[in-house]
Amino acid sequence: MVFERPDAGETAVLVHVDFHDDQAREDAGEFLELVRSAGAEAATLLTASRSRPDSRTFIGSGKLDELRAMLAAHQAELVIFNHGLSPSQQRNLEHELKCRVLDRTGLILDIFAQRARTHEGKLQVELAQLEYMSTRLVRGWTHLERQKGGIGLRGPGETQLETDRRLLRGRIKSIHKRLDKVRSQREQNRRARSRAEIHSVSLVGYTNAGKSTLFNALTDAHVYAADQLFATLDPTLRRLEIDDVGPVVMADTVGFIRHLPHKLVEAFQATLQEAAEASLLVHVIDAADPDRDLNVEQVNSVLKEIGADDVPMLKVMNKIDQLDSAPRIERDGQGVPEVVWLSAQTRQGLELLEQALSERLAVDVISFSLTLDPEQGRLRAGLHDLNAVQKEYFDEQGRSVLDIRLPRRDFNQLMAQTGERADTYLPTSLQTSVEW
Length: 436
Known about the structure:
Elements: E1 11-19, H1 28-38, E2 41-50, H2 60-74, E3 78-81, H3 87-97, E4 100-102, H4 104-115, H5 119-134, H6 138-141, H7 160-195, E5 199-205, H8 211-219, E6 236-242, E7 246-252, H9 262-267, H10 269-276, E8 280-286, H11 292-305, E9 313-318, E10 328-331, E11 337-341, H12 350-361, E12 365-372, H13 377-385, E13 389-394, E14 400-407, H14 408-418
Parallel strand pairs: 1-2, 1-3, 3-4, 5-7, 5-8, 8-9, 9-11
Antiparallel strand pairs: 6-7, 10-11, 12-14, 13-14
């Protein structure tokens, strides 16, 4: 920290206020999970009910006295609010309570700082922290005078606060430049995948919905997965083979949360852009969560904010092992898969998800029998390399008869590579919209 604060302790008193406005209301249970994920020990929870926050201390003088007594009783050195505090409210509370005060945004930033592993992730977290800190510098420097003072030294010297603000602006500008390079590299990679016609699938969802567990089960990756909020922060990409589609790039992304601070969404724009540019979003939902509808609403809100609300989506109802429910696929009126019910933990229904991904991504798959002469070995080998041959036998003339199934795009590419014309092999019923 670039400004002084009281020493922080790990034992915390929590503050949760129920507001009459549903839009401003936070979830107390989720708050406890956030505190646990940050590594703090919750000594007790102070609850209050208000129509609107107190402008000076957020909770009012009566609750402030209760909070002071709780701190003394539990010998706690940290107070965490389940709400966003203004810089002045945070400063006033620290002055009154003589201890460190943290709001919801600061708590989430602390968790993010613990979870970041990659260079990009650390840059994104630092950017969000610096932008958050820049509005609160005044709290740490109110006791300082100008750098130059006294007889013969008085003048328009820069205050320490102004110095730190200037240093912060320089660091923020530097991080923005480095993240722009990351975005540029990601955009190049996406363009390369687009040219190669490789589909990309992004896992999105509320935090702790089971995205990383599902990602590991599908790709045999070893992404950190735990029963805690924001277990995954850094994006991970893996290759996955899907029947009738071929190679697919799957991305595991950071989880969303209610009232996710806007600055965090901005800082993680490079990461979240994977979702906006995906061929298909797989929205992982904790089917056993009683607040799942509210969680889905929040995820949709963040997707809209990053411009990914128009990307095709497949919903996955995860954790059905906690509901005693059977794996299944729900389809729309045209028979297109919309929802897959499964358990990533027990691997129940994974094959149904792969089937649904195949149906959603394989736009044009052709299936027919093909007869090849012995001298057409190159074409035969190419079909085997594409895993397109379902069955093969020989006729009386010694020719190969292959029952094949593959995307039309792959068949056309193979024909072009071998110098053949696709229409000479395709049955008449499949010769519509042939690509030359």
